[in-house]
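Input record, target 12 of the design panel.
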């Protein structure tokens, strides 16, 4: 029988359709490949696009030249631009504003053929250092209410360029998904005096059936109410609200956990398309008229990384109800990933 499950962080219901359950082989798919005559993210193309805003260059050297390990550039075709006004424009019931924001590309390595799962932990850590540097820089602009980092892997997951990269978008409005999470965490903290995500971690460690990896620093698990098959969360076991404040040792541990997780996808699901999204605290800028707006944010919010393989499609029922259907119970997905043989991929 199917089962309705409630996600206390997302504040949403999910339907786990147990019969018939679907295993990894049911999700194998022929991936569509993109062919480019010239890749704008490869060595030698640095001077043909936008000028880099950050790069890791072990040997030094000028900007917009080869010799980098990780490189960050403004998106040539941004969905939001730094120019514009935040003044809302009203028309009856409707409201609009200029498309203000920031949109950057974080190129994860110079090699066109290597994606994130194939990088070493040290190379992934360099990518995470670039995330941290750009978050710390952009949050100085008080017009940004939220800074979002995400990755699309594969054309089916939204990656229009195959060279491995992720994206950072700065928004003048806190996204509804984050508003909902912040509200859930604040409400739980007010009722129980502790962090909601910390409580989730305690239960997941205690029950164990949805845990894939626990190295004492980060827990990798499939949520009890996973909205899609093989959906995972990577969460620090020690409470922390803001990714941008992490030290190098924690970034190294996160790099190992993320690399291991992506290798398990490679082994079990044959390199599926996926998205991952960083959920971190908004910049804590004071808001006029709201002196206690952030209140207990450092105590009640807990940053985390969501990793979601794109194995099913959203259809009419999901769009009409907001209920997602997951044909693989998270306990089953976790077992397959936990037992994956990674010897061929290390």
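The sequence produced for target 12 reads:
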């Amino acid at each position: 029988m199917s089962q309705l499950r409630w996600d206390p962080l997302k504040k949403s219901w999910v339907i786990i359709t147990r019969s018939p359950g679907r295993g990894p082989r049911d999700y194998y798919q022929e991936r569509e490949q993109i062919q480019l005559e010239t890749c704008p993210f490869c060595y030698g193309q640095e001077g043909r696009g936008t000028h880099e805003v950050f790069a890791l260059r072990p040997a030094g050297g000028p900007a917009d030249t080869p010799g980098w390990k990780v490189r960050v550039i403004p998106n040539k075709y941004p969905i939001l631009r730094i120019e514009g006004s935040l003044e809302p424009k009203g028309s009856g019931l409707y409201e609009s504003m200029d498309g203000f924001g920031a949109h950057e590309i974080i190129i994860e390595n110079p090699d066109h053929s290597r994606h994130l799962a194939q990088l070493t932990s040290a190379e992934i850590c360099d990518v995470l250092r670039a995330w941290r540097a750009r978050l710390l820089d952009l949050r100085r602009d008080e017009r940004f209410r939220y800074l979002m980092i995400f990755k699309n892997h594969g054309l089916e997951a939204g990656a229009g360029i195959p060279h491995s990269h992720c994206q950072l978008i700065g928004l003048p409005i806190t996204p509804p998904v984050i508003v909902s999470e912040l509200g859930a965490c604040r409400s739980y903290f007010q009722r129980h005096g502790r962090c909601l995500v910390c409580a989730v971690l305690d239960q997941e460690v205690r029950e164990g059936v949805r845990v894939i990896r626990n190295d004492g620093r980060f827990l990798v698990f499939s949520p009890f109410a996973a909205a899609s098959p093989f959906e995972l969360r990577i969460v620090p076991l020690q409470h922390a609200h803001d990714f941008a404040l992490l030290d190098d040792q924690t970034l190294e541990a996160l790099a190992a956990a993320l690399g291991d997780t992506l290798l398990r996808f490679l082994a079990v699901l044959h390199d599926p398309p996926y998205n991952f999204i960083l959920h971190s605290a908004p910049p804590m800028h004071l808001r006029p008229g709201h002196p206690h707006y952030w209140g207990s944010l450092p105590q009640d919010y807990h940053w985390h990384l969501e990793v979601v393989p794109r194995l099913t499609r959203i259809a009419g029922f999901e769009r009409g109800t907001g209920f997602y259907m997951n044909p693989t119970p998270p306990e089953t997905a976790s077992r397959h990933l936990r037992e994956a043989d990674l010897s061929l991929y290390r």
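The CA atoms of residues 146 and 282 lie 5 Å apart.
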